[in-house]
Amino acid sequence: xxxxxxxxxxQEFTTLRDILRYAVSRFxxxxxxxxxxxVNALDEAVFLILESLHLPIGDVNPFADARLTLPxxxxxxxxxxxxxxxxxxxxYLLRRAYIGxxxxxxxxxVIIPRSFIGELLLSGxxxxxxxxxxxxxxxISSVLDLCTGSGCLAILAxxxxxxxxxxxxxxxxxxxxxxxxxxxxxxxxxxxxxxxGDLYGPLGDSRYDxxxxxxxxxxxxxxxxxxxxxxxxxxxxxxxGVDGLDIIRRILSGAPLHLTASGMLxxxxxxxxxxxxxxxxxxxxxxxxxxxxxxxxxxxxAEDLR
Length: 306
Fold this sequence. Notes:
There is one protein chain. The chain is of the alpha/beta class. It has helices spanning about 5-10, 15-30, 40-50, 70-85, 90-95, 115-125, 150-160, 175-185, 220-225, 230, 245-255, 275-280, 300-305, and strands spanning about 95-100, 100-105, 140-145, 165-170, 190-195, 210-215, 260-270, 285, 295-300. The chain folds into 2 domains: about 5-95, no CATH class; about 115-305, Rossmann fold (3-Layer(aba) Sandwich). The chain has 13 helices and 9 strands. The protein starts with a helix and ends with a helix.
């Protein structure tokens, strides 16, 4: 009987370091693409291995020389092979993605969370012209998360603004099912209300102190050039029209009708800053910087949008 190559490798390898080295070599050889929480083969391999073993993902070093059981080795080798064969991002294989240290359930019904707004909500501070993302939390009694997807921003907002009512809307029925999983996992069903519909459509005349949105903003040329990993994500969660700003224009247009007098809109737009500023020269966009971005999230006060 011919020996299965995976079984042979599982017998040869003993430590986590052995599997990690193998994974990095195979990922690099296969020319995989990243960008769903990792940026290179090493980061992807570390995440895949540590998360699969239910170990803290922040630092591989404490576990690098740990001996793995034979079932663990077989499981990891199978997942490494699946990552290469399917080109699915690791979070889809593991059903888990992170914003900072906050973990969320994900599957292919939703885009994998990777929001700069999430970074801002977690840190509570921004660089540049302002000292904080939004007014003091005591002044926020209502928050809307447009295009909520997995519900991650709505959840982070509920955690930060403990007294606020949170509404979250999405056009996708499938995405809202995933959002419900994440909300229920945190016992936030009474704090976060989900709405299905097109942007502000299902919200009636509700107004909010804070509107957050990480909408689809990938332009047509970039959509046509997406690597296989990104093609596993729902196209409707990525595609933003010819220049990527179709949905953002609609968010701006509707915001005045759904912000309180002192409300604020915070929106992520990708690389469309130059086009947006040229098209809306009268709007005083405040660009919020994060550790990993510059000029990709804007903030506007309600009074600026009138």
